Amino acid sequence: MASDDAIRATNDEASMCKRFAVQQGYWNDPYIKYFIRSSDRKPPDINRGYFARVKGVHCLLNQFLQATKCKCQVVSLGAGYDTTYWNLQESNMQPERYIEMDFENVTSHKCHFIKSRKPLLEKIATKDGEIRFSKTDLHADNYHIVAVDLRNLIEVETKLKESGFDNDIPTIFIAECVLVYMESEKSNAIIKWIADNVKTAYFVNYEQVNMGDRFGHVMLDNLRSRQCGLPGTDVCQTIDTQQNRFTSQGWTSAEAWDMNTVYSNLPQKEIQRIEKLEFLDERESFEQLLHHYCLCWAYIDGAGVGLENISVVNAT
Question: Cross-referenced InterPro entries, in alphabetical order (predicted)?
Fold first, then answer.
């Protein structure tokens, strides 16, 4: 069983990795520095892996925003210190509502950073200037941070309602290394609830895959040594199990690619640029790492906005 404290610590680790990659020029994010001041050096394969992760998720999100003309909602599950809300504001691609959910220990820190750092606070869109803070939550016109245990579906529903969630407008759900930290029955409950209650939905899930081989076993052993087991690995065994977790719960269609495939489908000019930033000593170990993570996307297109056309293959 994963320790909740160990799960929370993965947010800090991922944020520091992203911070270092941004410092090295892998992608631009002017807001991450307000959550993570600095970071120790990370190896090139980790930096390239995070580049693929961030670019893959964002290319699907951006296509969804374009397809819906931003008349939509974004729900980020286990959002941590993610800065996507501010970067969308910067690019004038803000949705009607952006909701972040995470453990209260994480959301309380994020709320504190936002309150105390003017460049974050002044970018939050409000009509009357009012931003409501509690110790763990934030509510503004189109941005909400709520503390929740995602394993408790009733609590998830309650917090969505408090954030003005609208079941009738297109909604994209994003989870990055989140579902694997709960038993598959719990993650399936969220996936099924969305399918049953949201007419037009898109789900982007970044997570482990191909965990049955020796490399996968070593990954699991390393995580267990940090009291961070992965109770949801039964759906991380293959690309098929990742896709089936959605189609078996009522989603119209799902597709999953390992991160090697995602990486090779990202814009080649960008790949050529970032591969010049640092020398990668062992290409084979990098490819092995990417083989054990995947990007899965699924949709239900009740409104007929063309969600079947959103794919990493269309990345620009």
Answer: LCMT1, Ppm1/Ppm2/Tcmp, SAM-dependent_MTases_sf
